[in-house]
Specification:
With 265 residues, this protein is mostly helical.
């Protein structure tokens, strides 16, 4: 009598796609750095200091109360500072926790991890928007012509536009050994090009031309009363910077595979 043995059916393991990796990176960023003291200090303290300076030097003809562009511009300084800090901490954490090679072997590679981290930092930086307005409103009052729609929409776009630009810093941190001085002057440079405190028209002519390639300057122009074309420019340039981050990270992946470039600190 012949016994027929049937092999057990193979167990199908669910595949983890790049979308799931991206979502997990966003959640990890929010879970691990949501209460970072440095990030909270950056999003609230620094913008309020700049707002005090602007308010103290306001000339006649300008509102002495908190306007929508003053609120968003001041919050944008906090967003910028906190995003730089959070990108450094998150990317260095990925290197120190030795998770990059595992991500490199996943279907999406490093791209969804980096984009997820950037999205998480943008969401975290949004705390600067209501926090700054609350402080400035209590100190100086809110202007009667405050445009709440431009404050909210412009503030959200500003956060994601800033994260897309600083995303290139994330690539630099992954590609090269970390140096404490690699961000020196970065906050001041991006702040000037973003026209957070003064409009584009007040910038020197050479700086004004460079500022046109930065999406933050366009969203600030819209908040100050420009047309919807500035919103389209903001969205388009944000997408361009995101694409540059993707291309740079993909190039890094090829270098790691071909030249055995070490990724982990």
């Amino acid at each position: 009598m012949t016994t027929v043995r049937t092999a057990p059916a193979p167990v199908r393991r669910p595949r983890t796609g790049s979308g799931a990796t991206y979502a997990r990176a966003v959640v990890d960023q929010l879970r691990m750095h949501a209460t970072s003291p440095m990030a909270i200090f950056s999003t609230l303290a620094m913008p309020c200091v700049f707002a005090f300076v602007v308010h103290a030097n306001a000339t006649r003809g300008f509102s002495r109360h908190t306007t929508s562009d003053m609120a968003v511009g001041s919050a944008g300084i906090g967003m910028l500072d906190s995003i730089i800090v959070l990108v450094l901490f998150s990317m260095m954490g990925e290197k120190q926790w030795k998770t990059l090679y595992a991500a490199l072997g996943s279907p999406g590679g490093l791209v969804p991890v980096v984009l997820g981290r950037l999205t998480g930092t943008a969401v975290q930086s949004l705390t600067a928007l209501p926090g700054t307005l609350l402080v400035l409103g209590l100190l100086f009052g809110v202007d009667g012509g405050f445009d709440w729609t431009r404050w909210l929409v412009g503030g959200v776009l500003l956060a994601f536009a800033t994260a897309s630009v600083i995303g290139l810093l994330g690539f630099v941190v992954l590609r090269f050994p970390f140096s404490a001085g690699m961000t020196n002057g970065l906050t001041g440079l991006i702040m000037a090009l973003s026209a957070l405190i003064v409009p584009q028209s007040a910038l020197p002519a050479p700086v004004r031309k460079v500022a046109l390639i930065v999406p933050q300057s366009h969203v600030m122009a819209w908040i100050r009363g420009a047309g919807a074309d500035q919103l389209l420019a903001t969205v388009g340039l944000t997408a361009v910077f995101c694409a540059l981050v993707v291309v740079a990270v993909q190039r890094l992946e090829k270098t790691v595979r071909h030249d055995a470039l070490p990724l982990e600190a």
